[in-house]
Design goal:
The structure is a homotrimer. Chain A has about 375 residues and is an alpha/beta fold. Chain A contains 5 helices and 40 strands.
């Protein structure tokens, strides 16, 4: 569960088509041209809006991504459906199909062309508090009640929404979006094209204490920072702690969902995606291209190999050495093994009864033999 | 665990009685009149303050809600105790009892009569940033450093505390409370009589990406919104993501605890309550009147029937079709079945020993038979 | 997993040594003097910076805390290593060793001597909104866009970063740090020397509702408060709810990690440490000196004895009566018992096969006996 979840309804871009093209209308053929798709049906059919495949109305376009929704392609009244190039129907299909290499990627391409955003005027709000010792790039938007401390450097075309805090000497790249309430502690670095959602905290102190002989904790200062590379997206209310020494590192292309805990000195490898409420404990290294479900726990001081997939709610307590493993359970074991063991776990009452039956029938048998 | 938890100490309203009535005093009879209760004991006994049942002093009122605290009714020095109408004592009880249909509901009624709030003067703080293109209702309070963007519409008698962010075209009803630091992204809708606690995020982007052939993620824009209906309460630091297309919907009367993750395109049905740190993944539909414990995970694209109860830390990975099921475990199974299997899980070392013993005794037996 | 995790890299203070002493240099002997350590090797070796043990370069100092990193002491090029006084090498060690009673404590002591902070000028920002009915101590720093409501009292030498909200009648001690975006609801109390990280919420309403006969929830007002004693540290985005009546209490020396949920009327005992994403449900009492892993769930209305250790992701559903227990699993049982049972859980397919084999061989045997 909680794997990266391209739900069946990512035809969001189509709303944007509407915004831009209405009252103009587009044909199936025009859309196919935009995304390099192949028409299967009437290319002149006119589309004037989007819909979900299960609710599709005539004159709308929708798509089939998740196979769970295949049945709807035979009943939808939508006029156009984006499908995988290899889609085969076992019943007649009414809509015009546009066949593409990768449905979700096509959606993403279309959306890039058509997507709009809330328009922001570049410039610095008079009600922001920006240090005169900070450097602000070109065409950058800084909203009300933002705080930017001395030594901070903000790139070009960056959007900093209201009530964001940017600490001393923070460095932020180009084309970055910080949504309202993001807090970035001193000395942290955020790369280009990164998007950080509301109330995320970057660079708070790692959880490090030394216990004295009375059992009291003494704080171990956390003097490192957080480095977030390019093309990262971070979900709301996620926390990434600064390193005790050195850096906590989120590498290029990483996607973090909401409410995630990344502890001090962790490294998360390129293009790894992590779902909500997962925790990675201190000093662990997560490889690249991993897919980690929601509410997963990863212990401290371990390594997770590239391409590891971890099922939601699993607890990984030791290093995963070979790449592309698939894990489940607490402590986590191989995915299929967990499912097999769990199938027997469910039957434990019957299994125990079976053992008793054997014992009983054996006892009876022995008794009989004796009396023979 | 983590079911809705009316702890034994919800006599909070009584503090309010004190605020309002002191140095005045009320009698047991007057309180019984207010809540339609039946006096069992001295109705003239005077109450001048509240207390917990386990710490009750003479002259105070307390209540018995959770049966775990029953023993204290025989030892408390409190003068008055609210109890269920069917309460039967097996030892002498000193305090005056007020018997009511539903102890907690009576508490709630009393509190509604007596509860006070921090007094807020209606009006818009000069240090708020409110767009001239926003519409603000009557008798509404907008605190310092609030941001309200163009096109937003705020109803009457609504309280918006400091440092809240309200995005473009957001719609907020009447009698709503937004506590400090709440962030509401553009186009979201919040119904009447709804209370949203500090640092909640409503409407951030759903976690949706398409992977290209190089394994890089491309963002799928999330162009829908969040709709929160009337009479909803949402706990601190909870996140509700906007839909990719359409709406993420929190229906009437839903109660969400703190630090919850509601993913894009989820629907949560009427009067469902969810405890802290639970995650509902994308496009799932949770029915009405469900009670969901803390740290539960619900997979994407599934349906949870009305009245389902889910024990804390369970992971629900497939649809729950019949109503009023009770579930436990990861993956979740029927509650009692889980407990039975877990009881045997604890005994697995003994069970395995038992199997070995049978094997051994059978081997010995066979050997003996041979040598006969 | 997720126990308090003094990762191998807490030589953070050394960076501070650099800041203060560079371009000056210190000798191993000078460092040993500072921390009361014993030199084992060349005391004149010069240190001009810190490094991690696994990456150590000549001229740097590092330390060996976690035994997992012992191998690196034989290969590191660092010039000086802090080690436990009882450390024994089984191969030649090149660096000068400084032997100390407790490596982490020595680090903490050194850091206290050398650590620097971002310098803040005391005083109240003109862009803060501070009630004239609030009392602010000496040498206290109040940053931009902070809100302090009437009746609040703030001690001396306290730092309140930007966008913090302090409600009516809140009391805050001396030497407290509130990082950006912290929200403290009315009537809560925060002790001396306490540090609260960004976007933490203190004192939001507990999750308490009474259900009426139609199944609708009625809010039970939460009229108590939160009391945080001295020397507490609270991680980012953690939430501590106010009591319904009375107080939710975080006792002296408690350390809470990020994204933790502490429900209403909970007490957490002295010097207990809790890792990220853990939830303690309503009215439970956690003892002192407990160590609680990440993503643990503790049910409502139970007691956890002093010194209890709870493994990450465990779910504790009943009171823990004897001190110093170690627990694992959901529902949690004794730690070693869980591991033993889990070892057999993994082998369930083989165990079931074994039962089948016994049954089969017994059946064959019986058949043979018959035919004899």
């Amino acid at each position: 569960m909680f794997y990266i979840d391209n739900s069946s309804c990512y035809s969001g871009y189509l709303i944007q088509v509407l915004y831009y093209l209405c009252p103009m209308q587009v044909t199936a053929g025009q859309i196919a041209d935009l995304i390099g798709g192949v028409i299967d049906g009437d290319e002149t059919v006119i589309v004037n809006g989007p819909s979900r495949i299960e609710e599709g109305l005539s004159g709308t376009i929708t798509f089939l991504g998740n196979p769970k929704y295949t049945e709807y392609i035979y009943t939808t009244n939508a006029s156009v459906v984006l499908v995988d190039k290899d889609f085969t129907s076992n019943k007649p299909v009414n809509p015009t199909l546009i066949r593409v290499e990768n449905v979700y990627e096509s959606l993403a391409i279309l959306m890039e062309k058509f997507n709009s955003n809330i328009t922001l005027s570049p410039g610095i709000s008079k009600s922001a508090s920006v240090s005169s010792d900070a450097i602000i790039g070109q065409n950058t938007f800084i909203d009300d009640f933002v705080i930017i401390k001395p030594g901070a450097r903000i790139g070009d075309n960056t959007k900093i929404y209201g009530q964001v805090f940017i600490g001393d000497n923070v460095s932020i790249g180009n084309n970055v979006t910080l949504y309202p309430g993001v807090k970035v502690y001193h000395n942290c670095e955020i790369g280009n094209n990164t998007m950080i959602h509301a109330n995320v905290v970057i660079g708070s102190d790692g959880f490090g204490f030394a216990r004295d002989e009375e059992g009291k904790y003494k704080k171990i200062p956390q003097t490192g920072n957080v480095i977030i590379e390019d093309n990262v997206e971070i979900g709301s209310n996620t926390v990434i702690d600064r390193a005790s020494i050195g850096s906590t590192i989120i590498k290029e292309g990483v996607k973090l969902d909401n409410l995630i805990q990344i502890a001090h000195n962790v490294t998360v490898g390129q293009n790894t995606a992590i779902a909500a409420l997962t925790a990675v404990a201190g000093s662990s290294e997560v490889g690249s291209n991993c897919m980690i479900g929601g509410q997963v726990g990863i212990s401290g001081h371990i390594q997770i190999a590239d391409g590891t997939m971890i099922q939601g709610q699993s607890g990984v307590t030791s290093s995963v050495k070979g790449p592309n493993a698939k894990l489940y359970g607490t402590p986590a074991i191989e995915f299929q093994s967990y499912l097999k063991s769990f199938a027997y776990f469910k039957k434990l009452p019957e299994i125990v009864q079976q053992i008793r039956d054997i014992q009983t029938s054996f006892d009876i048998f022995k008794e009989k033999q004796k009396t023979k």
